[in-house]
Fold these 2 entries.
Entry 1:
Amino acid sequence: MFYIIGISIVLAGQAGQGIQTVERLLTRILKLDGFHVFATKEYMSRVRGGANSTEIRVSSEPVRAYVDAIDILIPIDKEAMKRLEPRIGTGTLIVGDTSYLGDVNNLLEVPITELAKDLGNKIYSNIIAVGICCGMLDVDMNLAKDYVRTFFKEKDDDIISKNVEAIEVGFKRGKDARDTNLISLDISKDDSIKDDLLLHGGEAISLGAVAGGCNFISSYPMSPSTAVLVSLAQKTEELDIISEQAEDEISAINMALGAWYAGARAMITTSGGGFALMTEGLSLAGMIESPVVMHLAQRPGPATGLPTRTEQGDLALALHGGHGEFPRIIIAPATIEECFYLTNESFNLADEYQVPVIILTDQYTIDSYYNISSLDPTKVENTRHFIKTGEEYHRYTITESGISPRGIPGYGKGLVCVDSDEHDQQGHITENFTVRKQQMDKRLRKLDGFFKNMQEPAYHGSESPGTLVVGWGSTYHAIREAINRVGDESIAHVHYSILHPLHPSTGDILNKAKKVVIVESNATSQFGRYIRAETGIKTDATILKYTGEPFSVEDIVKRLKEEI
Amino acid sequence: MFYIIGISIVLAGQAGQGIQTVERLLTRILKLDGFHVFATKEYMSRVRGGANSTEIRVSSEPVRAYVDAIDILIPIDKEAMKRLEPRIGTGTLIVGDTSYLGDVNNLLEVPITELAKDLGNKIYSNIIAVGICCGMLDVDMNLAKDYVRTFFKEKDDDIISKNVEAIEVGFKRGKDARDTNLISLDISKDDSIKDDLLLHGGEAISLGAVAGGCNFISSYPMSPSTAVLVSLAQKTEELDIISEQAEDEISAINMALGAWYAGARAMITTSGGGFALMTEGLSLAGMIESPVVMHLAQRPGPATGLPTRTEQGDLALALHGGHGEFPRIIIAPATIEECFYLTNESFNLADEYQVPVIILTDQYTIDSYYNISSLDPTKVENTRHFIKTGEEYHRYTITESGISPRGIPGYGKGLVCVDSDEHDQQGHITENFTVRKQQMDKRLRKLDGFFKNMQEPAYHGSESPGTLVVGWGSTYHAIREAINRVGDESIAHVHYSILHPLHPSTGDILNKAKKVVIVESNATSQFGRYIRAETGIKTDATILKYTGEPFSVEDIVKRLKEEI
Amino acid sequence: MDVKDYDIGDIDMAWCPGCGNFSIIKIIKRSLAELEITPSDVVFVSGIGQAAKLPHYLKCNFFNGLHGRSVPVATAIKATNPRLTVIADSGDGCNYGEGGNHFIHGIRRNPDLLHLVHDNMIYGLTKGQASPTSMKGMVTPVQVDGVILEPFNPLTTAIALNASFVARAYCGDQDKAVDIVKEAIQHEGYALVDMLQPCPSFNEINTYKWYKENTYYLEDDHDRTDRSKAFEVATDLDRLALGVLYTREKPTFEGQQQVYSKEQTPLWKRGQHDPDTLRELIKKHRD
Amino acid sequence: MDVKDYDIGDIDMAWCPGCGNFSIIKIIKRSLAELEITPSDVVFVSGIGQAAKLPHYLKCNFFNGLHGRSVPVATAIKATNPRLTVIADSGDGCNYGEGGNHFIHGIRRNPDLLHLVHDNMIYGLTKGQASPTSMKGMVTPVQVDGVILEPFNPLTTAIALNASFVARAYCGDQDKAVDIVKEAIQHEGYALVDMLQPCPSFNEINTYKWYKENTYYLEDDHDRTDRSKAFEVATDLDRLALGVLYTREKPTFEGQQQVYSKEQTPLWKRGQHDPDTLRELIKKHRD
Ligand SMILES: Cc1ncc(C[n+]2csc(CCOP(=O)(O)OP(=O)(O)O)c2C)c(N)n1
Ligand SMILES: Cc1ncc(C[n+]2csc(CCOP(=O)(O)OP(=O)(O)O)c2C)c(N)n1
Ligand code: SF4
Ligand code: SF4
Ligand SMILES: [Mg+2]
Ligand SMILES: [Mg+2]
């Protein structure tokens, strides 16, 4: 059984040629017209030029993963083609202009640039491309035109009507191709999804943060994490949020800790290099038992690496960064919904356990999206964990749970004393060995209670499978679709969104499988190593990718077939 | 069989009371007189006051580990007593003045302060204490006096003779105690060790570094790592070394990388918090394939922790610090000799494999010493690995070994281009996925060749033991002596000085034992976890200490007896 | 309030006999008492060093964080709860060495803080290496040939950054130091007080005597608003000027935050964000 | 030498059309050519940003390191091999933001470097957030209400730190910029050139036109050794002075190293330390 969901359209051009506008316009129009959509983009670490592209999948059922195969390719310039060559197959229809495409197979010739110029300017090329897709997909034209009008509403009337015309011009070409049976696309529409949401992982995280009560963000820009800083900054008009661009990452994490100390719910967002710089501060959070939420959006390293590409290469850093020993929680959302709900939850967990919570995403998660039905900002109940202090308040009281009631300065009569040195219950420096051990033990038992309410890892398929595929974080949907495509009932899938502490059922789950295959976007199987460190179990095979590209469904299908 | 080597003398007082002078004087005199000695100190994170102490063990055979038991205690003030109380046993002879000691058992009353005042100043108290020890141990008085004269040679004649007098005054008291059979110490002298060396781990590392060709050190002061910076700075008069105190640790590591790039052999020295800050730079070394030697002297964390105490809590950080994936080597010297030879070797390894080499020590290693026969600066052959470049030189040529010949600017006609972004063979930024993978694979295979010449872990005892004790780094001698004391033939001991890559024999070695017990100065058994991640083997029991104190022989004996 | 109200009771102070830090803590207590500031309304933020231990010896809230990082922490505390009196208090090494970047950018932000720097021109706690303010030629165990770096001048730098309050005090002269510190606390905006402090244990050059001989007080008619003049005064290293060199009124960091445009309530008192607003924000993603 | 000698050949340049960086690379090539410096004798050290990509587009040795860290790397390279011409070359965010602490202390060290800062008053590569030098009020996706921080003034700061060469240039005026850069390279010691650069993609305020209207060249009779005067000139933000504002002769960092007191040989040429000296050092530990 070959199980392909809908079609994939790839639009490509230079940075600055409006590929992002195309993506936004087209996915919105399609969704409003009742199509399920998925979109992800890939782009170079530069501002203009180069070759960027966006993949849009359109389907009559939910579609949520990246595929290599391109059904329709609309390149707006030549460079784009070169880069996409490996993905162009015999079934790929290329739409565009021979003037820059040259001699290619399966060409639907549309003189996009010419048509745009006829409208008065080359810049309408991208909107024409949107129109072509709409035409091919038989989109409701009025809806498309309305959307274009709203989209450009800030612009001059003339520009608005030119854009509407561009859509029409493109639409006609697309419809022609359909009418002449050059292409035949049978994707049915589903009216029930018209009110669905379209938002990428970065936005879902920042919405999850505000749902979790986040009211302070301090960060230093770094791709691909900046999306979260930007989207929280944009909300400071409507919401009580302080957003500050720090001079460096070290300042950012220390500000966040100061903010929690004074009663805020603070977060930082960064990428690998910035996180490395923050690890001293992470260790400080461990020592002073400060809550803090840290969003680490991974990109390929080491060092500067590939700033705008994706990887899951910083798990080991998230697990072990920072000197000394202290508890932490690591979460890797697998879906847009989880980006929202788990981020929301992270603020409660950080506050309750007084530990750093690291949200581990990657460029792919940040920049991808698909339609989801809804997000409920009150579904996760927000709990508040600081107390009003009395005169005799001691910040680091020894308790059985390991959690000492947390006061904040200015609320109650007590003094709140926190110290990065080893300290006694009052927060004063100590060199007493017994006190040291008591405080260490107290800190290290804080998460013992965490297990009781811990979400089970997602499990699909037989409980004693022939092959168990293990994944974490952003590979979820690609694995799901790949397993569906392979269509072998003996394959099961377990997926981790809460990485650390590792769910205690892990050993049992893995032991029940004949063969364990792990999928990770890194070169050394960091999660596999971590599972082995925790359970002793070695995965039987690894499916790894570390080129900087996300896993495609085909990547996993191909390797899975080799492994079963 | 109860196996105690020689006696242990503890001298204690406030910071600033000259306890370090005492330690230095006494150990030198004893060694020159033919006694085997061991010394270690513990001190507070302050400059004056508090309570510091030094333990000196004296024996007729080599003695190299810390013990809890105190045979002779000479406190120079009251505070010192309080702190040492847990270590005072029924067999402890306390020497000093009732005026500050009060009512204690086993007191040899010597009015030290009075006697010092008689000599003209309270400050002679510490030298009198040295004299007492010399008297008790029947040291050659002329030798002691000569040594004191040389030791104070920079001082005024008057002060020199007062110090000599102080030694004599103390000596008489010590000898009296001996003559009256109050104490009887039978430790024989060994003339062959008079030329032995006495140097602490910090000094051995810095000598090892210069033997390895180190000619550049950039660092920021941080206890307990500063000793290495100081001792290299002190050598800049005699040797061609640039020593620079950086404005922060980030600058320090980046300077070291700049220095290697331009052809120096550079190192940094730091402790956990500083190392955390350097991890971005560590990752840079990984990416640009720069050699660099990093000395990480551990102290208890998290955060500021206990700045002058000891722990093995930063192994996970050394293993996983830095974002992205790249090879590194981690070495943890177990002896003074290894501090020297393995540091020497580190410069060759870093240079040969173009990787960061982390030398992982701790406060205990840095501040402890015992007599060793010699150190040979030419034993490790220094190899030089950079080449003269030709016009067509490419820094990152793909090679089978993964090692690309390293050029330096100004030597040859080639240009040396290094880049923190992913790069092509020439060192230019790339976003080509294939090139990315090639360069990643190249970097990750660099250490494949490392295994062939890798030193075996030290092994003592039966090859299929009932109990196998696993240790690493600074616990070596304490484990050795503890096993000797327990005297059970079924116990074997394997000890790691090269931690990463882990020796491939590890699984086999551990599997042969009925029970594996690991000894670590941390709370979470980081090396145990690492072994499990590598081999799947879980240690059966852990002997852990994380109070900030070093392991004593007794600690291990007690726990070992429980475990066998 | 009385100076005694800030006493913490019996605590072992880790400073050396004769250290300038003993005077500094007195200066601080007197300043707070004279300004009638309740201990529970003050937050001290320090880094690591001998100076940075000060908050432990005082009745106050404190955040004794990492070496070099007190300014960002203090800035965030003040922004989160502007009702607190926030004092960033640490050593010269901490503030001008490890924390140099935060010094610069902290000034640019202009939070309403007292930034008190114990300037003993040495690294005390780590046993006597040069600090950024150490004088040229000073020999230490690390600077074996003497300091060769140009000493860092915190005052010229702060004036160059157009800091809103720039002062130098000397802890050996408590009355005058109290005046300066009080003014700095009352000043709305970032206020630097570089507090000259002898370190008898490690700094043999800048002794009590040296400070006496090499400092002078600014005249009453010194025009604090004259930036160029203040700069010129600050460049003089032979005679160190004491007093308030420069002030400039400007809006504070926290004062300019959108969150305080309507109400002054500290963030912790505000509760969660309004769910309806969140729902609206989410709905926007329908198209 | 000819400007062409620095051409790297066919390479894809990641800069936007109309960017000031194209002028800067020309200025650099011309300066090097006119000073007859061989490509293999030059090392460029850059950080991360659009500016920091420059060394890739030039025939030279380069160390394109981490964001913010070019100054310590460059300092060490020069100290390790003083025969090389070392140029630290990066953006304003890189040097004054992330790298602010190295900027301060780099100046204090006074290595013989050209420190060239492409000052476009914006973070280019990360798509238009404020940089330390962004003007007040500038609205960006992160500074939604406009920049509220006091802009960082690199020139007043460098003069406050008594830097040995402080200049501002404008890349739109290549001839004059070449003169300034050449002088900075020839200057023995640390030389800051803050190079004003339009960023047509993200900075809509500081355009070519704006720079034309808001800059002027210092008169020939400007006294570069007058620190107070230089400071005053540098404080003026309405009219930005171009040219060399301040110079001060002082010994370089590498020049003061003990290793070069007898011979100038770069470290790599010296081989291992003498084993006999090492043996002596070890023997000292016999007592
Ligand atoms: C990241 C980091 N680096 C280094 C240290 C070690 N350290 C502690 S205090 C100190 C210097 C203190 O000097 P200063 O700030 O002038 O304070 P003082 O002791 O002179 O009062 C240093 C380097 C540290 N704690 N953390
Ligand atoms: C540690 C770290 N933090 C953040 C980044 C992301 N980053 C790359 S370039 C840049 C800003 C560049 O601005 P600037 O230095 O002014 O250069 P421009 O692009 O304007 O030329 C940032 C924040 C990074 N690479 N490393
Ligand atoms: S080291 Fe110096 S500054 Fe620190 S407490 Fe002692 S005398 Fe004071
Ligand atoms: S973003 Fe700005 S500075 Fe960077 S290349 Fe483009 S125009 Fe130039
Ligand atoms: Mg100091
Ligand atoms: Mg810039």
Entry 2:
Amino acid sequence: MSITQDQGKMSTTAKQHQKLPEGLTESQLKAIYEAMLLTREYDDRCLKLQRQGRIGFYAGSFGEEACQIGTAFALREQDWIFPSYRQPGVALLRGVPLQSMMNNLFGNSADVVEGKQMPVHYTSREHHFLSISSVIGTQVIQAVGCAMAAKIKKDEAVVLTYFGDGGTSSNDFHSGMNFAATFKAPCIFALVNNQYAISVPVSKQTSVECLADKAKAYGMTGIQVDGNDVLAVYRATKEAMQRAKVGEGPTLLELKTYRAGPHSSSDDPTRYRSKEETEKWLKRDPILLFQKELESLGIWTEAYEADVKASIQNKISEAIKVAESLPQPPWESLFEGVYSNDPQALMAQKEDILTHESGLELTNEGEFPL
Amino acid sequence: MSITQDQGKMSTTAKQHQKLPEGLTESQLKAIYEAMLLTREYDDRCLKLQRQGRIGFYAGSFGEEACQIGTAFALREQDWIFPSYRQPGVALLRGVPLQSMMNNLFGNSADVVEGKQMPVHYTSREHHFLSISSVIGTQVIQAVGCAMAAKIKKDEAVVLTYFGDGGTSSNDFHSGMNFAATFKAPCIFALVNNQYAISVPVSKQTSVECLADKAKAYGMTGIQVDGNDVLAVYRATKEAMQRAKVGEGPTLLELKTYRAGPHSSSDDPTRYRSKEETEKWLKRDPILLFQKELESLGIWTEAYEADVKASIQNKISEAIKVAESLPQPPWESLFEGVYSNDPQALMAQKEDILTHESGLELTNEGEFPL
Amino acid sequence: MAEMTLLQAINTALHEEMARDEDVVVLGEDVGVNGGVFRATEGLYQKFGAERVMDTPLSESGIIGSAIGMAVYGLKPVPEIQFADFIYPAFDQIVSELAKMRYRSGGDFTSPVVVRTPYGGGIRGGHYHSQSPEAYFCHTPGLQVVIPSNPYDAKGLLKSAIRGEDPVIFMEPKKIYRAFKQDVPQEDYVIPIGPANVVRSGTDVSVFCYGSMVQVAEKAANKASEDGYQVEIVDLRTLYPLDIQTILNSVKKTGRAIVVYEAPKTCGYGAEIAATIAENAIEYLEAPIIRVAGLDTPFPYTLEYVYMPHPARVYRAIQDVLNF
Amino acid sequence: MAEMTLLQAINTALHEEMARDEDVVVLGEDVGVNGGVFRATEGLYQKFGAERVMDTPLSESGIIGSAIGMAVYGLKPVPEIQFADFIYPAFDQIVSELAKMRYRSGGDFTSPVVVRTPYGGGIRGGHYHSQSPEAYFCHTPGLQVVIPSNPYDAKGLLKSAIRGEDPVIFMEPKKIYRAFKQDVPQEDYVIPIGPANVVRSGTDVSVFCYGSMVQVAEKAANKASEDGYQVEIVDLRTLYPLDIQTILNSVKKTGRAIVVYEAPKTCGYGAEIAATIAENAIEYLEAPIIRVAGLDTPFPYTLEYVYMPHPARVYRAIQDVLNF
Ligand SMILES: Cc1ncc(C[n+]2csc(CCOP(=O)(O)OP(=O)(O)O)c2C)c(N)n1
Ligand SMILES: Cc1ncc(C[n+]2csc(CCOP(=O)(O)OP(=O)(O)O)c2C)c(N)n1
Ligand SMILES: [Mg+2]
Ligand SMILES: [Mg+2]
């Protein structure tokens, strides 16, 4: 999972420490750090692509790198992710190819779904990373069903689902929490409390002070974690994994953090929150915090960071170049894949359009407002 | 609100007690008792009507009389009820005429909704008793909206909504609790935990032990009350009213009781629970409990009960007689009242049917399975 | 062969499919210990245990949402929605998720859930126990919509649905759950999803219908045959995908079309049949396409027998198209 | 008169109605401080305060459910559902409650809620920011469904909706929110719910459409007029109740009908128009009724311009019915 291959480099210094935190090895700590950096760089570049008009939409996870990597790093290959739209870092850490993600952003012919989904809606069964829905909360109960299924089939798999503070108000947060507790599903609820649902602050979202307390309605364990401390997130997730594995059922993890960027490329946060507030949170930038920790462990150096970044940036640039150069998906793709077999009505529509319209000039217009 | 008019009768004995419970007067205590008796008798007769094939469906509230009367007795005229289908006693206590309710059961021409709703789906704006929906949970968030409206309009009204243990799993329990707490709506949630949702025991409904704890997810006050003790229910409701009135927002009251009868006339509870279980609960019959209390206060005597019962039975018999004698609503009524103005498409349907079908023999068949 | 009701046929299909494939699981309200409020799942809990026959909390959204997750993982969930009227809390999961999972993931993930739900009027159930919401689902690409009209079809179609790779909304006409018995083979058989069934052939008028309306159409056709007219009745069986060819063939032969359905007339499924004919076979038509349907009102209680299409109304429509 | 976009017309109507009647309240996600993600509620919060312009928790079911309770009490709620694609979590409240409140209570209770929601494609929004679910609501007795196609209508229709006594699903074609400006009177005016609008009269072909499809139809009609054909365009404006008379009059005149809509073709609203014509005016038809519609697939991203009805497709349909 490590991005740079030269993992030996800092080992002499690191070895001075008898014991590294959370029982992690140096290379694991570096993998975490690098995954966080990759997430940050990926977000950064993609938002720029949108600003430059090269892709239609982007929603970044700036500030939420620890929430993503701390949780996902605790999972095993057989575990599952039911994500929301704000976990690019998780997809990358699971091994979803950067190129595949970039193809989604451009909606090109190489895209797994051939441009059928908006940007940031990734999918990868191979990596147990469920196709992302825009609809808030729906994945939560689905994750529970998946966990119930694993339990029924006696597989040792845990399902981790991500959703936001806004998501806790959705119908399927409620059904998901309730089903999970009632069926003791091996499931972890990662509530990324980034303080906002677009413009709505968490204080208008719910009147409970500690969102982890929502677990109490369901007889579930609920834990609040500093979502900017990647190792704290990792530890809490490990513990939740343990509970799930021994049949003690689900855990709600409230990862308290801050959405440091705009909601999405369509959003202007200055309309509803102060720069001071944002700056205050940026002092606890999760990457910076972890970097300091690694530095004190003798693992981080400027040169190391520069190396990693350079490597990441190259890969991203490469992926962008390829994705951008690919053509749109063929028109045929539009009509395929709704069912395992194509229905007659739809095939008639296909024939109608492909036979007659391909010569006519149909133009692509419109922009996304959110 | 008292049913028998001879309220003076027991007063000499009663006066020996310096202070009656909950600051209630003797006539209020009797009103509560009589309302509970009326509820029991009403349920009893109506279920029999169904068994005799005279009405199509009935769902009784046997065992839940204290939950109904204890709560509703604490309300004032300006307050509102957003009921479920298991509060006939509340409707009666609010003053909804027995005859009107009976007309609903028969779906006759005098029915307020002209046979458009199933039995037990009463409505009375005059008594601030919302038209009942069969759909579990929907009234909960509506009650909250109503309370928000009263607050916006600066009216001093409190809204009380009823729902069951099954109802706590519904989407709109969640949205209702959350909106109420967030907007500090003057609202009371009466969760009648009668241990069953049809055949599903509360242990399969949720894994929380105390259902009042569900309030904790919303930052709301939650209180568990002995739902078979009418005065305890009354007291808790009064306190919740007080919180609502002074702007402290909503309260969740878990009224712990037992559905002593079948879910409805279509249900056979022997399929899923033991007679012993039911008998155990019947020892705490809320009417019997209250009767003993009244007896110890010198208010209850056998003669008094007999008098009240006789009067109630007469009234019910009378209402049944009238309701049963009335014809079906006219066919025209079917087409009216969907909108404030009748749409053209619907009027064409009306003309089509009324002009042509009235001579043909259309037969009424089918029975309700639930 | 065994004589059985539609309800028994459903129950038999569930028993057989659960025995055949251990990935088949059933979930819903009261489907376990109680065997379902209509008894469609009777005996499953006792036979296959609590893990495969799950009494769930009272949440349709939870039932369908968890079923989707199960299907994604590899099970074959057959959730029951107690009444079609209560499917709406799950509408978001059905429309946004169940229907779109395959398409939105490029086939990476699928959710072949079979949602069983009793629908329709005729049981004195009023607004909330009588609705026929099939048109909503037919307008939702990604779903298949299947409605049997008799015990034989019910068993064969449900088996197909469970063995298929796509989500199915399987709607059961509860009015005829126990209305009549039919010989149903005891051996395994499937009826494919797709083809309509010409249950009576005729040359004068085509009547398109499904579910409990097939019987209504038959009564009307009997009456018309007394007048010397041969009515063709097409039981659609599968509403989506629709067997357009069978419909057009029938209309081309008879030149007259009637659609019978219980749901409110406007934007009901019959509109699609009429539009399909008007788009593809208008030159064969000798009369207006008449829709005999429910009313544009919520479903009533006392007068449901006036609300619902009745043989008399269908018979009059037959006369109208013949006399046009 | 003021030049304004459709979005500005909506915003103006909201400002004016809130000033006119203090019972009018607005609620929804991001509608307050942020003025709505499309800015339709811009300035309302600042002008009318947090009590009348409510930022709600993220729950559409909660938004509609609480609005129903408010309306029952006597307010006039105008909730916003941020995208029509997210109306499904509220589907139960809309179908089971909002639509049925008046009928089921014999008029005792009413819930005149006006649900505003942007719908439709053309903004590169993919599956979940492009849907056109109007047919679901038109098939739900008790609801009115209104869709403006231009700024002038938007203001007048929204005002009617807010002043009316029945629930309205007010769908706003977001593709043309800012696409063009129009002169809109600054004084108060209403456009009644019900009548369709013949935006261009012609004798050769009738095109029925609404929302952003009106412009599409107009472009096609322009092209056809170059060929010497006069196309009549009927902007339905109100989908339920439908102005059947205007439709039939148009078809009786032209003998040829085309319906244009963005939603998936099967069981879409155009099916109802086709069925209505086929039921009431078939003898006037000289050609098939063609539906130019979205596809029977979820809404795509990259190729949305192929998915959506385009002037070229409408133009071809015009040629087809003319050459039939
Ligand atoms: C059901 C639904 N309603 C509304 C939206 C529009 N919307 C998209 S993101 C969002 C806010 C989500 O907030 P939160 O759950 O806290 O997640 P975050 O964006 O902060 O990661 C809203 C309202 C949606 N996608 N789905
Ligand atoms: C949304 C919905 N789903 C299912 C049903 C069918 N149903 C009717 S009552 C009931 C159980 C309700 O249990 P609870 O909320 O505890 O109320 P109780 O009947 O015990 O008073 C069910 C499942 C329904 N009416 N509405
Ligand atoms: Mg958030
Ligand atoms: Mg109960």
